[in-house]
Amino acid sequence: MEAKSIIEFKDVNKIYDNGTVGLKDINLTVQPGEFLVVVGLSGAGKSTLMRTINQMHRPSSGSVLVDGVEVTDLKGRALRELRRKVGMIFQNFNLVKRTTVEHNVLSGKISYYPTWKSLLNLYTKADKLQAAEALDRVNLLEKLYMRADQLSGGQQQRVAIARTLMQDPKIILADEPIASLDPLTTRAVMNDLKKLNQEDGITVVVNLHSVPLALEYADRIVGMRAGQLVYDEPINRVTESDLNAIYQSV
Ligand SMILES: Nc1ncnc2c1ncn2[C@@H]1O[C@H](COP(=O)(O)OP(=O)(O)OP(=O)(O)O)[C@@H](O)[C@H]1O
User: What is the best residue among 16, 90, 249, 250 to mutate for testing ligand 1's pocket, by most ligand atoms within 8 Å of CB?
Assistant: First the structure.
């Protein structure tokens, strides 16, 4: 029997309201536990692809299955459950800067609670313990009570990773998570993602602009150009010149 995939795109197209083609005839299957890196020029459709997985963007046609569930027309509770299963981290971290690291991490519990409870800061002791554990996974436990804006960019991104851990995600999507970081912090963030992938079996999908990092961290690399998948190889078959070709073509 074929292993059950965790993400599956079948003939997916996305045309934005202004007529821009975001995705064109995407067929892609991701297995549980893969560390998939998506590369391509700016505007190639990497973010669109990623945001179709958690339905921040709805495809215009085709089918997207996440953990066996068709997600393209989910609403309400079912959509919230999808977004609980699929954690996301962003280039600009999306933390609430003027509050503590602990509160930011705890807010990852939001999909489990009615909003009023999280607004009133009514977290349980068990939640607070889980938040401390999540921060410990990214080696930032000592920053628990600091304000988020007192941390470096790399540390803020790792707090964002700890926040997604509160959701107990099966998948983490990372949309250019290291674009604004220096090389050393970049490595800390990528190492955290790799650790969660290897130790917890979380499927990771990362959009990256860096060819060396893609080569170092991916199990598999897919390349996009003008909304289409133009490359899909396991890491042992990827060459640097393949990737350079994806970046050089216009
Ligand atoms: N909300 C939107 N409305 C209209 N067009 C959009 C929208 N979002 C993205 N696009 C367009 O869709 C195409 C794909 O964009 P997308 O952001 O997915 O590319 P990307 O590969 O992630 O680029 P980058 O590396 O710069 O983030 C681009 O032409 C972009 O301008």
Answer: 16
**Number of independent structural domains in the chain:** 1
What is the pLDDT of the chain when averaged over all its residues? 92
Model pTM score:
0.93
Give the residue, by CA position, lying nearest to ligand 1 atom 3: 16
Pick from 134, 104, 136: nearest CA to 121: 104
- Asked if the structure places residue 65 within a domain, the reply is yes
Q: Is the CB of 223 under 6 A from ligand 1?
A: no
- C-beta of 42 in contact with ligand 1 (< 6 A): yes
| Ligand 1 atom nearest to CA at 57 | 1
DSSP 205-221: EEE-S-HHHHHHH-SEE
Q: What is the per-residue pLDDT for 112?
A: 58
Q: Flag whether pLDDT at 250 surpasses 50.
A: no
Atom nearest to 227 CA in ligand 1: 14
> Is 123 a domain residue?
no
Handedness of CA 9, 61, 245, 243 (dihedral sign): negative
What tokens appear for 59 in the block? 């495809």
**Does residue 242 form part of some domain?**
yes
